[in-house]
User: Fold this.
Amino acid sequence: MTIGLAKPAGARMMAHIFERFDMRIFVTAIVAIFLANSGNAETITIDIKRFKFNAPTVQIAVGDTVVWVNQDGTRHTATARDGSFDTGALSKGKSGKVTFSQAGTFGYFCKFHPNMQGQIVVN
Assistant:
């Protein structure tokens, strides 16, 4: 007959703490990796001023976000020619944003002022 020795209560408690500590380190590492990978996306701002988009052509990466900010006293939109996005009417000081999830070239214009045009190139 073999008799096992039980761990003293303090040893059991320390083993439990180390198990939880190791799990916390693991979870923290996974969260850090996730945040590092998702933090690469950028936000690009395009001002609308004097009836123009201040950056007629912008090159971005997949996952980046473009924000249009209306600095004019009249309403404007940023509307994709292919219908894939539309900021809606933006009054002075308001903004609209679009996150681009696939590569391509996206021409856009203002619905109220069709001569206002721009292009987003997503690589």
